[in-house]
Specification:
Layout lengths: L31 E3 L3 E15 L6 E15 L5 E6 L4 H15 L3 E3 L2 E3 L7 H4 L1 E6 L5 E5 L13 E5 L6 H8 L4 H11 L30 H18 L4 E6 L17 H9 L7 H11 L4 E3 L8 H10 L3 E2 L7 H14 L3 E11 L2 H6 L2 H12 L3 H5 L12 E8 L6 E11 L5 E11 H19 L2 E4 L35 H15 L17
Parallel strand pairs: 4-9, 4-10, 10-11, 11-12, 13-14
Antiparallel strand pairs: 1-2, 2-3, 3-17, 5-6, 7-8, 13-15, 15-16
Helix pairs in contact: 1-3, 1-4, 1-13, 3-4, 5-7, 6-8, 7-8
């Protein structure tokens, strides 16, 4: 398993615009301190606590402040990504694309020469507002240069797959990337071989059996021990400071959640030792990662992060995140539903249909696996509906229907059709119909990069409240990743936010807090309160 970033840059290839750890600015403030190894900020978090008088029903709003200190280690070090399902469409596409970007490999298309890029990556291809200059003009900087972050060109890539094809052949099988690009990267990708993986036919569709020729045998405990050794060996062989594990393999059916099975960390570990049939392969990978101190991200919709996994992550002070890459139809839904509800328009019915022909679609053609996807897609509007009691009475919710069909001939080019029927002024109805062609893996692959970059950053951030308090990591469940995920997993007793603008705003402003800057807002008083 040759790591991708040991491959030398080709002659004449352009160096990346920034390297790991680069930032676009330095904060001039007594509340921010730069050292050789970290950035420390004193930050006042402003919020509003609301109470309600029982007699009058009136609200009382009280502004409050909480003082935090943040410390961000600036040395990114050498970091690795291990993907479960490395030989799938997403894994092979992101590997080939990082190689093309790293080595400056261009390719020919009908329209001419195409240069590699990271379009679709929030971190690599979007900007954030830093502030205004002396002329009150907005100043924007790359998202990945607010704080020191890993550059994808520097990632060491490896992983597992139930199929033994090398990554070059897996890329060809996926039929995602242009043929000329495939030709230019094939030889080096053919050197990359996935490690054997865990296969449990009860959890994925029966149509995946013919792919399963690269397997870890033994009991569940032996498989767990094998995965832990794989992570240790990968880290040691490549001289890595940190490894992040990401599930980008097939959607599994939902696992049972029950007391004594997977409700606590100890019960889950005992269930693995007992070989319990309801411990899924993805949960085995999550447990192996946590026990090795490697953050684990679930990019599929199944309930990998059962309560016992979250409890184990909390106990081991290791990060987990999930669920399900948010790439096309659901991302648009989280924007449009938020717009409608915030505009005082009442969605009555949201009907979503899509068909696709890649292996993900093949696996989802099985009812149990489709049900996992249906659950992850169906909750995307819940928080927006719950935020407007003027439109929706308690317990009221729009009808929400989701259909997915497997059509092999369309390949990775997924078709998504949505209809939004909403009540408007004086009982009128408004209908919005959308048709969206989603290049599935080309939309998902940048999310893998973003999830890796943000998760890696959080491994270097600690906080405390008070000068004498202990420096602590953030909570083990990384809800900051919600922007990239369909069904965000959050810490117990924490609200789920699906509205895309809120998710991005939270991520942007948390990064600003790490360098002692106030949250961005669009008040623009400098352009309004003047004469």
């Amino acid at each position: 398993m040759s790591p991708i970033n040991n491959l030398a840059n080709s002659a004449g290839a352009a160096a990346p615009a920034t390297a790991s750890g680069s930032t676009a600015f330095k904060v001039d403030s007594p509340s921010v301190r730069y050292t050789d190894s970290s950035i420390e900020s004193d930050y006042v978090y402003d919020s509003t606590v609301v109470s309600r008088d029982a007699a009058s029903g009136k609200y009382s709003a009280k502004p409050t402040q909480v003082h935090y200190k943040f410390r961000t280690k600036t040395n990114v070090g050498r970091v690795g990504l291990m993907m479960v399902g490395w030989g799938g469409n997403n894994g092979s596409t992101v590997t080939a694309s990082i190689l093309a970007n790293k080595k400056g490999i261009s390719w020919e298309t009908r329209k001419g020469t195409q240069e590699p890029n990271y379009f679709g990556s929030l971190m690599m291809a979007s900007t954030v507002k830093l502030g205004v200059d002396e002329q009150l003009k907005d100043v924007y900087v790359p998202f990945n240069e607010v704080v020191p972050m890993a550059h994808p060109n520097d990632i060491v890539i490896g992983g597992w797959d139930i199929n033994s094809k090398n990554i070059g052949d897996a890329m060809r099988r996926a039929q995602v990337l242009p043929v000329d690009l495939q030709r230019r990267v094939y030889d080096e990708l053919a050197e990359l071989k996935p490690l054997p993986s865990v296969y449990c036919p009860d959890f994925i569709a029966a149509n995946q059996e013919e792919r399963a020729d690269n397997l870890i045998g033994g009991t569940k405990q032996e498989q767990l021990d094998h995965l832990r050794k794989d992570i240790r060996d990968f880290k040691q062989a490549n001289g890595l400071d940190r490894v992040i594990v990401m599930w980008t393999a097939n959607t599994e059916r939902y696992a049972d959640v029950a007391a004594g099975l997977n409700d606590t960390a100890d019960n889950l570990l005992q269930s693995i030792a007992n070989g319990h049939s309801e411990v899924s392969p993805s949960t085995l990978f999550a447990v192996a990662s946590i026990l090795e101190g490697a953050p684990f991200i679930n990019g599929s919709p199944q309930n990998t992060l059962v309560p016992g996994v979250i409890a184990l992550a909390e106990r081991e002070h290791t990060f987990v995140g999930g669920d399900d890459f948010k790439s096309g139809q659901t991302k648009i839904k989280s924007v449009l539903a938020e717009f409608l509800v915030n505009a005082g328009i009442k969605p009555l019915a949201i009907t979503s249909y899509n068909h696709l022909g890649n292996n993900d679609g093949c696996n989802l053609s099985a009812p149990a696996q489709f049900r996992s996807k249906e659950i992850s897609k169906s909750s995307v509007v819940d928080d927006m509906v719950g935020a407007n009691h003027l439109l929706y009475k308690k317990g009221e919710h729009p009808d929400h229907t989701i259909v997915i069909k497997y059509v092999p001939s369309v390949g990775d080019s997924k078709r998504a059709m949505d209809e939004y029927v909403s009540e408007i002024f004086m009982g009128g109805l408004n209908t919005i119909s959308l048709y969206n062609t989603c290049e599935d893996s080309l939309l998902a692959s940048p999310l893998i990069i973003d999830l890796f970059m943000m998760t890696e950053l959080m491994t270097r951030v600690t906080y405390r409240q008070g000068d004498d308090a202990e420096w602590l990591p953030f909570h083990s469940v990384l809800s900051i990743l919600s922007y990239m995920l369909k069904a965000p997993v959050v810490a117990p007793n924490t609200p789920v936010v699906n509205a895309l603008a809120k998710q991005r705003m939270a991520m942007e402003n948390i990064l600003r807090a790490f360098v002692g800057l106030p949250p961005n807002n669009e008040m623009m008083l400098e352009h309004k309160a003047f004469h």
